[in-house]
Amino acid sequence: MPDTAEVPVDVESVCSAIEKSAGLLDVTASREVVRPVLAAFEDALPRAVIAFRVATNARYEGDFDARFTLPKDIDPYAVALAEGLIAQTDHPVGGLLPDLRRLCPIDSYGVDLGVVSGFKKIWVYFPAGEHETLDRLTGLPSMPRSLAGNAGFFHRYGLADKADVIGIDYRSRTMNVYFSAPAECFERDTVLAMHRDIGLPTPSERMFTFCARSFGLYTTLNWDSMEIERISYGVKTDDPMDFFARLGTKVAHFVKNVPYGVGDPKMVYAAVTSGGEEYYKLQSYYRWRPVSRLNAAYIAARDKEPVE
């Protein structure tokens, strides 16, 4: 696929692209919200992979996300605090990135922002092929107890030594652990067993078909419960319309009309809520680079693509 590195990546250009893309969903991007986040990391934008994301379920309605990568020499949490993008907190979520930086070798970072909600999430990418183990991660004082509390689940499905990426959501106070999962985790019987193990509804036939094409999965946990909130699966595709079961009019319009990354692969993520709702997230690239931890964290293991 072509590298879209030629697209403009200064603050104003990216801000305009975000506004235009959000407008396809009838979402108004607030410059007062978006611009400070981009400006805080302005020096890193020329080298960043930049992606836009939309979700199909009601929880995400009215917002639109953008994300971009950062090199490992930038501490995104320290910058976000210094620039007033997030507030200092005594909650353990505020200590997780510093703890990870002390414990783990880190390849790079990513930042998520909502065009309405503002700075949301930091992604921590471990070096390609150097997975972290739950034994090490659960020793961190800021780590949710639910990670250790579900150790049996992770060991049972071959995930305990395959942690690839950590996502820290400062607004919802949740954490994602992405795994370079064994192929068996995407087979129908295993998908069903995993959902039953954590009390999630049985996936639909469409979801089983989706999982069979997945390259990786992630779990969502929080600090207030011992439960795994959800399992989500990811697929790389050139035609995201293949996967959407109940696509709202606005999201369908976005998928068909987003002007960026037209010739580049898209990411589609799917999950089932505890109430049985199946939903999808589409990630489209404003600035794609095939050699990036943002989009190749798991693809390399399945497709044998090189990663930095």
UniProtKB/TrEMBL annotation:
<dbReference type="InterPro" id="IPR036239">
    <property type="entry name" value="PrenylTrfase-like_sf"/>
</dbReference>
<dbReference type="GO" id="GO:0004659">
    <property type="term" value="F:prenyltransferase activity"/>
</dbReference>
<dbReference type="Pfam" id="PF11468">
    <property type="entry name" value="PTase_Orf2"/>
</dbReference>
<keyword id="KW-0637">Prenyltransferase</keyword>
<dbReference type="InterPro" id="IPR033964">
    <property type="entry name" value="ABBA"/>
</dbReference>
<dbReference type="InterPro" id="IPR020965">
    <property type="entry name" value="Prenyltransferase_CloQ"/>
</dbReference>
<comment type="similarity">
    <text>Belongs to the aromatic prenyltransferase family.</text>
</comment>
<protein>
    <submittedName>
        <fullName>Prenyltransferase</fullName>
    </submittedName>
</protein>
<keyword id="KW-0808">Transferase</keyword>
